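User: I'm curious what two different proteins look like when written out as structure tokens. Can you demonstrate?

Assistant: Sure. I'll show them one after the other, since each token string lines up with its own sequence. Here's the first protein:
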Amino acid sequence: MLPEGFGEVAERLRRSTVRVLSANRASGGSGSGIIWDANGTVITNAHVARDEQVRVELWDGRSMAADVAARDAYADLVKLRLRTSNLSSNLSGAVWRESSSLRAGELAVAVGNPLGFIGALTTGVVHGAGPIRGLGRRPWVHAAIRLAPGNSGGPLADAAGRVIGVNTMVVAGGLALAIPSERVVRFLERGSRPTLGIAIRPVEEGLLVLQVNPDSAAERASLMIGDLLLGLTTEDLSEALEEAAGSVLKLRFRRGSPREREVSVAVPGLRREAA
């Protein structure tokens, strides 16, 4: 049974949920996002906002451009800044709650734009918060709630409409996973996480380099496709990059032979949005 006043809670959530579309319709589809504050900050998944500019549609049908102000591909988060100066009185910012305070069995509410249905709302229950076996050490909010393509980037909230996570994926068995609210707040405080500019695949001994982006930290350090970064998981590399931001990171690797090598990579600093 839904709590009294749930209709008002649902309406507030809908007003703080947006649709995020690729600025170039040919380069991707659409997802959802959360208006985080009345200053035009929108949070969504990195896999939803792949381009540096996107379009955002509000609950009332208004559409406007938005720029990526910060990105963390590992955490799958992007901060968007709406490109307008006349919205502050009409934006409905979200209220958030620490996901660590959740208890199994609490009501969970998801709002998004699945399969083209704008502002669709679904309910379910929280299973818990923490790591998921097979997905490394990173924490998730997991809930038994129905999500579909287009829900990604939208809010997962409690019965009072407080955001507890950013919906991201569904795993085997239909369990929905959301990025915990605390990680969103940390991302907003920290800014963009530094990257090497490589695509990797975890293997038994470490991380296999599948791609090296032009003019990236990895290319400048002479890393190559096929190099094997030794003794690292994806989580290890992400944490090491954050700790080494603005300095030098030493990596052990192998290239086509059993002999180990070491490379020093100049890691970019954290990129924060200009004031």
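Here's a second, unrelated protein for contrast:
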Amino acid sequence: MPPSFARWPYWPDAAALAGLGAATIVSAFLLFYGGTLIGQDSATQFYPWYEYLGDRLRDGDIPGWNPYQFGGAPFAADPQSGWMYFPAMAIFSLLPLGQAVPTFIMFHLALAGVATYALGRVLRLAASGALIAAVSFQLSGPLISRAVCCPASFEVSTWAPVALLGAELAIRAHDKLVRLTGWIIAGLAVSQALAAWLGQGAYYLLLMLGAFVAFRTLIAPAITARALKLRVWDLLRHGGAILLIGFGLAAAGVLPRLAYIQRSNLAGGEYSGHNSWAAAIGGITPGMLIDRILDPTLYYPGAITVLLTISSVYLARRWQASGFFMVFGLSALLLAAPWDTPLHQLLYVTLPRFEVLHEHRPERISMVGFLAIAMLAGASGSALSRERVPRPGTRAVLGGAAGLALLLLALRADSAMETLGWGAAGLGLAGALLFLSIPTMRSVVPALLAVLIVADLLLGFQALSRRAPFGGFHRVDIESYYAPRSAAVFLEDRAVEGKGRYLGYDAALRAIADGQQVLYRYQFASDDTAALVVNNRGTLLGIEDIQGYNPVQPQRFTEYLTALNGHPQEYHDANVYFGGFNSPLLHLLNVRYIVIPANEEAGRPDLQTLDRVLPTVYEDSRVAILENVDAMPRAWIVHDARQIETGEALRLIDSGQVDPRQTALLEEEPPPLAPATNPAADRAELIDIGPDHLEIRTFSDAPGLLILSEAYDPGWRATIDGEETDVLIADHLLRAVPLPAGEHVVELRYAPPTLRIGLAITGITIFSLLMLVSHQVRLRWQAR
């Protein structure tokens, strides 16, 4: 290189970032060339939700309610809806869906790589070592693989290095503006983890961040001679400032979610009753650990990365942060195991609700634990690049690691991919051992290792893509995949006219997951499934489905659907089974259209029965749409009400003992009612409808009760002719509004107080941070 460039102090960083950029571009090629790779959760949950979020934000609305899933449910309060997750809000509101999805994925991969590189450099790794750390984390299983299938997981992973970077900048800062900037960076990362996955994911990021701040203030402070009480003060001020900023920025999402979880099917994070299997401690056994290191899975860390991590015990023993990443990495590995250790008991006692959250797939701690693996691998690469003369210990460690790679290859290799991965690991480390003897090649060795790591991880990702779990990975054109089929167009037309909800049904599209039967979501890539307009396509298309795939559901709706079907179902799912078509509870949900396969196969009496009983209003080569003529209207008036115990309404209506057209079942004392002189004159006419509001013109010659075929939630507020009135729970699930005699206009709006309070706190937090930053900038300019 020219002498002038060789003297430029930033050329190692420029070269390393160029290499990171090249790795990111190659990963984009694998993810998007020939179509976008999608997985079960991304296709059936997150992309429909994020598109709905973007649509509402483009219209200038806050998406409090989703009327297109479960017959209506909270949206902003849903822990994984994307509300207050700034990348989803920005990207999906600014770009069409086909462009938003790849932009969203690549933003996260790039941010994870750059933030990990910056963290390595701030922690004094060489540029080559920071590059090894960056590519090891960016392309590991919890990031690139889960970018396809499981957005919430890889979103939390992305913000882990950002959180540590901000904390490190704040802790070592001598300038108030730099310290404040570090707090804001770490606080932003915390807020985004809370917005992406309030619960298990955010808890893991907070656990890692808290441990890191404690390490850097109490154990390895920036000023080593600092007194203990000052170290404790540093812990409190740095930790407190980051948490205050993080929760303040996330308040508009956190407060509604904390309230909603308490009335959901997973209240408090509990998995009980029919869903107790979900809380069975799983974890990774030693045998599984070896399998997941050797076999490309969603948890694949990379063979060379692991061997460099092991080598860091010797090579990086003098690195200032090695103690933290070694202890945290081993702790994460221990917590991922299916054993009840003293560490488990310590955290269960000291951390609120950690036990009940961690028991649900404890191996998920890898989403932050893999950052420790990547940083230690980078530390080994950094140590190699800085050794002028290879020490005997270095040769021994690398030679032992290369020998271990070849031994594992001989013992475990049963596929070409394993042979390639472990062969590359052995050759890479053997080459490092050889090239370290050549002074001019010493700086090249870490770069060669980075290239081998990228190749290993991307080849592993390619292998996983061909045999991924949960219905597999599928390459699709996003716009075509989500484009409405002809049956969906028919339902969209009816939705504009307000003519009722729908559901899709085909019991043949089933799979067994964790011993539970699930419908539709494992067949998310099938055209047969898409034609049924299931898997949350209603949310994407703006048509009202009473089904859906979502782990968080209103508890009353879950109970309602269990009574309707006659049995519970896997807690992620909300689907109507064949037995539910005979229940009056189905009619009560305003379900007017049922989408079924057009070709009635032999041995399918369920389809034949439905087709015989219900008239067909639409048919094409793939599906038929039947009309449920017994469906209740969107709103009606009754003049009789009974008070019953909570839960009794479902039994009384399902058994036919109570006709909901005539009598409302309430869980409190009914309001004053009277029989109508002319019942035929009663009317409830829907005059305006939106996602978060309804307007109905009513008339009755006697006091009555307006019943709406709409799911109740305490966030709904009602007015009659502009005067506020109560919203009651009728028939276990529905909304009811007491009506005086005469003609009135009833308006309902969804305005939960937790959302308003949260927005106020978030707004105050943003305003305060802007004021503090501008104040510090002004002071700096004045000083100059």
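A detail about the second structure: The chain is about 55% helix and 15% strand.
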